[in-house]
Amino acid sequence: MGSPTHRVDHPYVSRRPGMAGGSPVIAGTKFPVRSLVQYVLKQGMSPEEVVREFAQLSLPAVYDALSYYYDHQAELEAEMEDNTEARWREET
Fold it and tell me: Confidence band (pLDDT; 50, 70, 90) for 5?
């Protein structure tokens, strides 16, 4: 019989009140997961390009954050939409 499996959901993603409005960030940074999603999925950067552009990020962290996004896609899409709408209202 094997040893029990210990599940770790997303070790490179954290949430802290007061940081990025409580939005999930890449652990050890202030880099919001929603920003990563914008760069990779909306603007077409590869994870490798993101890591080259933002030295504080590691490739495993970027892939884990993308996995987090897919696990919480509806929540993060709504958050990104709210963020866009709030910014638009501030500018008008």
Answer: very low
What residues does each domain of the chain span? Answer: 13-81
Q: Which tens digit of pLDDT belongs to each residue from 37-79?
A: 999 999 999 999 999 999 999 999 999 999 999 999 999 999 8
Q: Does domain 13-81 have CATH number 1.10.10.60?
A: no
**pTM score, two decimals?**
0.81
SS3 61: helix
38-44: long-range contacts, CB 8 A cutoff, minimum separation 24: 38/80, 40/66, 41/66, 41/69
How far CA 73 is from CA of 27, 28, 55, in Å, comes to: 19, 22, 26
d(CA 27, CA 35): 14
